Amino acid sequence: MLQSIKKVRLLVVAAAVSALAACQTAPPPPPPAPVATPQYTPRAPTTPFGASINTIVPQLRPDGLRQTINRDIGPLETLWHVRAALNVAALSCTGAQYSRLVSDYNAFIGNNKKFLRNANNAIIRKYRSDHGSGYKQAHDRHQTSLYNYWSFSPLRRPFCDRAVQVSQRAIITKSEELEAFGAQALAELEKPFTDFYLAYEEYERDLDAWRRQYAPEQARDAADETINTTGLTKGG
Asked: How many domains would you assign to the chain?
């Protein structure tokens, strides 16, 4: 009898333990292992118009203009620089949208042959006065630099677009209006270049920020290679 009572007590205790265990909340599962997030490095900024990374941007002058070959020239030289730009455009701008450039250039020269000849003679006299016996070499170097300036290949498309617009006005401009036309036309033809210089300077700032964040070694190397040119340029 006593053994039966003990068995009953054991059964009651076991049942109570089982009931208590059933009432308890199961512990939460362990948190998942952290997933490693891949490090993403954005591409370095690229130059505008695919220009060379060694492109030299002309300095900005106090008057807000860039120190290019088109600065500090008189009205006749201004018109001559426009003529050179239209010549470059006629020779290098290809495609149906630019087909009129050759005929426009020839018409511009033919319509203003006397004025342009006198302008060229005046420019030569100025070079002879400024450079003495070496005037011809100095003039040739200037002309080469001028044609190279207008021939900057990354800007071929925007330059040609501007040249078409200017050439259409050039062929209807009267000789007595050529100086005023030259000043306006030169500013228009330079617009793609001035826009490019601003874009290139922005690219340089973006590249510097990218290097400091993602490639500090490149940033240090670039800083080591920087040459201080203050005072080395004309007027500096």
From this structure: 1
